[in-house]
């Protein structure tokens, strides 16, 4: 009902306000001159960046086609996703083996974090791919300007707005009684632009837990998402923008507790988030001042009765500035003030940072920055980052040598601290005073590009001191690994364009992780690999894409004992046919080989599924 009201309001407002729509430009192929924002908070040519960045364009996202954005991101280098079952089940996205709650996610600048959860993390299980046009991924603890606890940054952009009025209708249907409907409306003239993406998703699901032999019922999921963006150009230099996001998700799951283990469980998730920003830009300076707030509520039901509820808020004021015409260098600087709320608990964290970007050479580039955080509970901390890139040409090819080092810290969440002090904790966690985690990491690598062919190899080494974890052996509460937890590995990625019709992409990550006790870190595959093949007909009407994913050598834990998880390989195939300029038909097969596997012990991943859909553009 909420979605329908928004659509009706928008239609009535825009019916006579904007000029007719213009055809959208096709997605641009990534080149060395492509601009990315995620590394330094301001647009930078990718050739100048010494840190590792992956980019997914709208064309790539549509080729994958998966409902879940996390399932698409896991095809990128060094990204592993674990999910407790099917759509809507608790998910963790780990970059280079670090915990999912160390991954910071932004959507149109809005921080998508859930402070109502045990850790302030991104609830990827409730982020659909509909309405997304671009994703930039910064790998490793390099997110200095975003916050000292950013062990990786994912920047998501919704669809851009072109002059005129445009409407996109997207509908899918398929296995497990799954249906999706998305409406994207956009309108713009010289002074104002507006976009709205409204999505309704529902699936009947399947029995996700191997231990559920009592009900053995299907665990379904429902999602309603509205994402809106309104911007106005106040003058040639000033822009005011409002972003609002509303998500409602309902997940059925197994394993809640009502004295005994029950298998009739429901979780309801609600997010209401808004960001208002005022931006100034000129040839020499830029300034951005923004205020954002997000409110999250979670309610869990066991056998139809409320068993647990939590709520949280993130209120944030941030300023980002840049000076770009200084002699031989640029500066990026900023401050942010964030209030974290979990139930009746509150905490402030204030940060300031300054970053130097060299601009004195066409071949050598360097960035160096420092950040200072003041945390109410854990005092002052300084974080650093330095990155370099050197370019040299070889005939028509460009070779880039790069390296970077970054550090950070993460304060225990309000929930973690409160749980250990509460009535549900018992020794050894009860009363344990948690300390902050300290992280650091370096990488170095080489990148080769010629035309649309690219190869990259990166060596990385990351450490976390005193990593926090929940006691899965005794369920006593939150503990800390006294000492150093490591992720040490190598990444290879590449793309080859054979012809205008055929291209290949591949990546491989070997990551050896270790806890202070010498054991492998949980749910972190030692080997990840992805292979993609894309074929487009000469008429460009037909497209066929295949994605092959491999995960080997992962472990989980049961009552303190390590358990080896089975290796698995998953094949997905998608195809589309453009009937006309305005009509696109597509189909998708997921897990074509019907692989049975578990990413989390006792939780079964989805079997083979098929979907068909239609997309209409006006």
From TrEMBL:
Domain TonB-dependent receptor plug residue range list: 46-152
InterPro entries: Beta-barrel_TonB, Beta-barrel_TonB_sf, Plug_dom, Plug_dom_sf, TonB-dep_rcpt-like
Signal sequence segment: 1-23
Keywords associated with the record: Cell outer membrane, Membrane, Receptor, Signal, TonB box, Transmembrane, Transmembrane beta strand, Transport
Predominant location category: membrane
Location within or outside the cell: Cell outer membrane
One annotated GO molecular function: siderophore uptake transmembrane transporter activity
SUPFAM superfamilies: Porins
A Pfam family: Plug
Recorded topology in the membrane: Multi-pass membrane protein
Cellular component GO terms, alphabetical: cell outer membrane
Gene Ontology annotations of biological process type: siderophore transmembrane transport
Sequence ranges assigned to domain TonB-dependent receptor-like beta-barrel in this UniProt record: 198-592
PROSITE patterns, A to Z: TONB_DEPENDENT_REC_3
Similarity comment: family membership: Belongs to the TonB-dependent receptor family. Hemoglobin/haptoglobin binding protein subfamily.
Protein name per UniProt: TonB-dependent receptor
Source organism per UniProt: OM182 bacterium MED-G28
């Amino acid at each position: 009902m909420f979605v329908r009201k928004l659509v009706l309001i928008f239609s009535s407002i825009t019916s006579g306000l904007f000029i007719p729509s213009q055809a959208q430009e096709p997605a641009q192929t990534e080149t060395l001159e492509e601009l990315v924002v995620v590394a330094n908070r301001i647009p930078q040519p990718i050739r100048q960046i010494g840190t590792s960045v992956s980019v997914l364009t709208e064309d790539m996202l549509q080729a994958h086609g998966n409902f879940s954005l996390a399932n698409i991101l896991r095809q990128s280098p060094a990204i592993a996703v674990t999910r407790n079952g099917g759509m809507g089940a608790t998910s963790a996205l780990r970059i280079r083996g670090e915990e999912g709650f160390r991954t910071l996610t932004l959507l149109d600048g809005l921080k998508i974090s859930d402070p109502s959860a045990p850790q302030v993390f991104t609830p990827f299980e409730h982020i659909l791919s509909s309405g997304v046009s671009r994703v930039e991924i910064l790998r490793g603890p390099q997110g200095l300007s975003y916050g000292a606890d950013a062990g990786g940054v994912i920047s998501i952009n919704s669809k851009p707005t072109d002059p005129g009025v445009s409407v996109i209708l997207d509908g899918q249907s398929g296995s497990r009684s799954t249906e999706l409907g998305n409406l994207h409306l956009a309108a713009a003239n010289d002074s104002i632009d507006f976009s709205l993406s409204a999505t309704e998703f529902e699936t009947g699901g399947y029995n996700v837990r191997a231990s559920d032999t009592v009900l053995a019922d299907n665990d379904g999921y429902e999602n309603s998402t509205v994402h809106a963006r309104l911007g106005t150009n106040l003058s040639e230099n000033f822009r005011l923008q409002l972003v609002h996001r509303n998500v409602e998700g309902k997940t059925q799951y197994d394993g809640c507790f009502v004295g005994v283990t029950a298998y009739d469980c429901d979780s309801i998730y609600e997010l209401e988030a808004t960001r208002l920003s005022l931006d100034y830009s000129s040839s020499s300076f830029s300034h951005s001042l923004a205020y954002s707030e997000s409110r999250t509520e979670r309610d869990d039901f066991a056998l139809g009765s409320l068993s647990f509820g939590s709520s949280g808020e993130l209120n944030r004021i941030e300023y980002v500035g840049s000076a770009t015409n200084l002699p031989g260098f640029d500066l990026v600087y900023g401050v942010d003030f964030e209030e974290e709320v979990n139930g009746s608990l509150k905490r402030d964290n204030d940060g300031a940072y300054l970053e130097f970007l060299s601009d004195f050479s066409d071949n050598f580039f360097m960035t160096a920055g420092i950040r200072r955080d003041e945390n109410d509970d854990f005092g002052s901390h300084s974080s650093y980052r330095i990155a370099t890139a050197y370019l040299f040409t070889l005939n028509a090819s460009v070779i880039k040598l790069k390296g970077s080092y970054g550090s950070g810290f993460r304060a225990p969440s309000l929930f973690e601290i409160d749980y250990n002090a509460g009535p549900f904790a018992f020794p050894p966690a009860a009363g344990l005073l948690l300390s902050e985690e300290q992280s650091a990491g370096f990488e170095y690598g080489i990148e080769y590009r010629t035309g649309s062919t690219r190869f990259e190899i990166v060596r990385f080494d990351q450490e976390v001191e005193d990593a926090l974890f929940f006691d899965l052996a005794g369920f006593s509460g939150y503990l800390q690994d006294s000492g150093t937890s490591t992720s040490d590995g190598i990444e290879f990625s590449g793309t080859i364009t054979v012809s205008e019709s055929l291209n290949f992409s591949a990546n491989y990550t070997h990551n050896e992780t270790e806890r202070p006790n010498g054991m492998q870190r949980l749910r972190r595959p030692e080997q990840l690999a992805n292979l993609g093949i894309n074929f487009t007909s000469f008429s460009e009407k037909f497209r066929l894409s295949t994605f092959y994913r491999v995960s080997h050598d992962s472990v989980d834990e049961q009552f303190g004992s390590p358990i080896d998880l089975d290796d698995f390989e998953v094949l997905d195939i998608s195809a589309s046919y453009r009937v006309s300029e305005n009509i696109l038909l597509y189909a998708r097969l997921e897990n074509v080989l019907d692989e049975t596997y578990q990413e989390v012990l006792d939780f079964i991943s989805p079997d083979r599924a098929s979907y068909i859909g239609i997309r209409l553009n006006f």
